[in-house]
Structures are given as C-alpha cells and as structure tokens.
C-alpha cells in the first residue's frame, strides 16, 4: 500500500463515516495515525464501526459533542457536512485544519491526476475522458464524486496510470495541497448556496482545482464562460481553452461542422451520437484532457461515435410507439434542465419536480416553448405548475411520483413526442438519490410496453 508521506499530523478526527470517511479512517490507521471517528447516524454495533475499533480507532457516534475536538490536530470531514455545522465552527475557532478525503488521495496518487469540476457535466466529461484513454490503450482509473472513493483507488495507482477524478465543490472546499496534473473547469453558475451560503464561496471552492498547479500542469477551461475566463487569469498552469463557437489556436474548438484540437481536425459533428450543445462543451473538454494525456484520434473517435450518454444524464431509454423517452434525473438544478430542454426541437412532455430549495423556475421560461405538456410532482409541483401557466402550456398534470408521471405523460403523448424526465430539483423529498428517481423512471417506462 502506498504510504501517506506528507501528513504532519498525528491525532486526526474523521468526521462522518459513509464510504469516504471509512476509507479515510482505515488509511490513516494503516499509516500509524491516532484516529477518532465521529458520526451522527452510525451505531456502536455497525460492522463498519466494529472493524474500525479493531483497527484501533476511537469511535463516538450518535451526536457531535464538542469534546471530540480535544487534542485533535486535523479533521478529515465527509464532503456533505457543511462548514456551518457547530462542531466545524468550533474547530475553525480552534484553528484545526479541515480537509476532505480528496486531499489524502492527492498525496497518495503516484500517477497523473486529471481533476474535473463544474456546475454541470462532470460525470459525462469524466466518463468521456476515461473511455477515450482506455480506447487509446492508456492505463486509467476513475474515482471521486462519481461514486468511487478516491483515496482507496489512489493507493493502488502506479506511475504509468492516470487517475480521473470527478470533483464536487464540497470536496474541493477541503483541500490544502491537492494538485491535478490536468484540471478541467467546465462551467460556473449558481448552485449549492444552501451549503456554501454565498456565490463567492461556491466559486472559490471550484477554483481551488487549479490553485496549487504550477507551469508543469495544464488547466482546461471554458472560454465561453466569462466568469471562468476572468478567474483563470491568476492560474500558473498552462491554459488550454475550449469553445463551442470560436476558433482557438491553443485549444479545442468547433466551427459548427467539425471539432479541432488546435489546428488538427478530430471528428465531424455529424458523427457524434451524444445530443445537446452542452454535451458538445463536455466533449471538447474531454478531448483536450485526453489529447494532453496521450490519447489517439482513433480512440477519441471510437468513443464519440458510440457513446450515448451517462445513465441518468440525458440518457436515451427507449422508443415506444414512436415516443422517445429520456432519463435526465441527474438534472438537479435549473441550468441542467435548461440544457436538457435545449437538446430537443420536437414536441416535448416535461416531467419535473422534487425538493423545494426556495428556487423559482422563471429562468426556464425561454426553454419551454416546444414543451406541449408538463407533468409535475414533489414539493415543487405547485411552483412548476405556475411556470407552466405562465408559459401558456395547455396541459399541466400533477402526479404523485415519477411512476405516476410516466403513466400520465404517455397517456397524453403522440407519435414523435419526447417524454423527458428532467426534474430541475434534487430528489430528496421523495427519493434517497437521483439514481433511485431515474431508476423508477426507467422501470415505469418499460412497464408501458
């Protein structure tokens, strides 16, 4: 196992178990650290807890008492725990550094790290980069926010392997020295303010992806996003822009017919099977990282002519009686749904709704002109109904859940309609995850046959 060589702390609090916390605790214990674990929802008799006890960890479960901070030199926290948690507020008063497990992964990885972040498109871009490298006979592993614990994977990485990491703002907010060889910054828009509190905090977390880079590293960035263009001026790394509209001498770009890496033609757009202009931006970013990592044009083209999308992200499900069903359950915010709606021109029935975070949905108005009907559900159903009425959409149906929404949408659909699940909301009012919500959609669609 690769050792942690640059953690100058002996007594460490792991805050929050789950997969990343458990992995971090095991890693720290294996490296001779004194580890205290604190988790609200775990129980003393949980297998995970018992295993960590056997390894020598001190366990405190059921609450976050302030005494767990006593004598601690570092906190490794679960990314989902916000910084306004009283325990973390007190830790900051005591000047105890707070990191996430991604920082540990960065110190463990012997190969090159490709880090990918943005408000939208992370999973698609991460998958594309991974596939392009694999098709080019490169060694690669994937981890991070995509569902695999980065520190676990990093321990097994060899010098000739690439580690492709999908990185959330929650993870990036807790880094000190983390430094990807290639950083990708896809886009920035207002999101997760319930966690970060201000847009400045959110942007700062995202921009951490390049803060430790040097002129030996690369920063792939969206030249069509003015906020990003301004932010990357302070980056020390080699900048590689991408644009869906403008020719770039030192980047990846499209002229509306083909994609180029610098002056080298990579592929014609008509050969690419993944739909949506937002996905074109993801494709350009992925090509940049892949080419910088040694991918071949043949490997890149093989991926782009066959890749139809990530599950739950504008995923084509099936066609039933000439109705086309798309699962975009990962659209947990308004911008994601805007992009999904922009991917189609034919009549669309939109299925939307979920957790109410206080958002209004008026920003969707310019994007629903081709929406012939809406089926809404969850806590935001009433707000989305108001949106539909403002857009003068004739048919607006309130459904109990996603399964009911599929049934209602199919009942009012016609041949050549798109039936699109793109909720514009998180899933937690009715479903544990957006994956669970998307799986229900897929299951409901297949029961129509």
TrEMBL record:
It is an enzyme of class 6 (ligase). It is found in: Cytoplasm. One of its GO terms (molecular function) is UDP-N-acetylmuramoylalanine-D-glutamate ligase activity. It catalyses: UDP-N-acetyl-alpha-D-muramoyl-L-alanine + D-glutamate + ATP = UDP-N-acetyl-alpha-D-muramoyl-L-alanyl-D-glutamate + ADP + phosphate + H(+). Pathway: Cell wall biogenesis; peptidoglycan biosynthesis. ATP binds at residues 118-124. Keywords: ATP-binding, Cell cycle, Cell division, Cell shape, Cell wall biogenesis/degradation, Cytoplasm, Ligase, Nucleotide-binding, Peptidoglycan synthesis. Signal peptide: none annotated. Residues 312-425 form the Mur ligase C-terminal domain. InterPro entries: Mur-like_cat_sf, Mur_ligase_C, Mur_ligase_C_dom_sf, Mur_ligase_cen, MurD. Its EC number is 6.3.2.9. Residues 116-290 form the Mur ligase central domain. PANTHER family: UDP-N-ACETYLMURAMOYLALANINE--D-GLUTAMATE LIGASE. Belongs to the MurCDEF family. Cell wall formation. Catalyzes the addition of glutamate to the nucleotide precursor UDP-N-acetylmuramoyl-L-alanine (UMA). This is UDP-N-acetylmuramoylalanine--D-glutamate ligase.
């Amino acid at each position: 196992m690769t050792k942690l060589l640059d953690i100058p702390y002996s007594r460490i609090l792991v805050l929050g178990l789950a997969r990343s916390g458990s992995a971090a605790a095991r890693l720290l214990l294996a490296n001779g650290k004194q580890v205290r674990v604190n988790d609200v929802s775990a129980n003393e008799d949980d297998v995970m807890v018992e295993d960590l006890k056997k390894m020598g960890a001190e366990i405190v479960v059921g609450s976050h008492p302030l005494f767990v901070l006593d004598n601690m030199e570092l906190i490794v926290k679960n990314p989902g725990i916000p910084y306004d948690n009283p325990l973390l507020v007190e830790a900051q008063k005591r000047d105890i550094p707070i990191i996430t497990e991604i920082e540990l992964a960065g110190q463990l990885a012997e190969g090159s790290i490709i880090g990918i972040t943005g408000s939208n498109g992370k999973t698609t871009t991460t998958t594309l980069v991974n596939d392009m490298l694999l098709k080019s006979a490169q060694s690669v592993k994937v981890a991070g926010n995509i569902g695999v614990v980065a520190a676990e994977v990093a321990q097994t990485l060899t010098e000739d392997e690439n580690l492709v990491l999908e990185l959330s703002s929650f993870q990036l907010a807790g880094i000190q020295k983390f430094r990807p060889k290639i950083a990708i910054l896809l886009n920035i828009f207002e999101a997760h303010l319930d966690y970060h509190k201000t847009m400045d905090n959110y942007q700062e977390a995202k921009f951490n992806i390049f803060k430790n880079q040097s002129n030996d590293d690369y920063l792939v960035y969206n030249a069509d996003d003015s906020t990003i263009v301004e932010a990357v001026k302070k980056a020390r790394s080699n900048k590689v822009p991408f644009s869906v509209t403008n020719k770039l001498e030192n980047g990846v770009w499209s002229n509306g017919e083909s994609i180029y890496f610098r002056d080298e033609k990579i592929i014609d757009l008509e050969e690419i099977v993944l739909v949506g202009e937002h996905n074109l931006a993801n494709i350009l970013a992925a090509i940049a990282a892949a080419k910088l990592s040694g991918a071949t044009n043949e490997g890149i083209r093989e991926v782009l002519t066959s890749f139809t999308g990530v599950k739950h992200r504008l995923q084509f499900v099936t066609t039933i009686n000439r109705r086309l069903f798309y699962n975009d359950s990962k659209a947990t915010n308004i911008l994601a749904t805007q992009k999904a709606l922009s991917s189609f021109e034919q009549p669309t029935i939109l299925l939307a709704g979920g957790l109410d975070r206080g958002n209004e949905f008026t920003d969707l108005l310019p994007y629903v002109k081709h929406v012939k009907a809406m089926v809404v559900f969850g806590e935001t159903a009433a707000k989305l109904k108001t949106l539909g009425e403002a857009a003068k959409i004739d048919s607006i149906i309130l459904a109990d859940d996603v399964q009911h929404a599929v049934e209602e949408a199919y009942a009012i659909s016609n041949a050549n309609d798109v039936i699109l699940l793109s909720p514009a909301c998180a899933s937690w009012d009715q479903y544990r995850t957006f994956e669970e919500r998307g799986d229900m959609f897929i299951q409901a669609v297949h029961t129509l046959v």
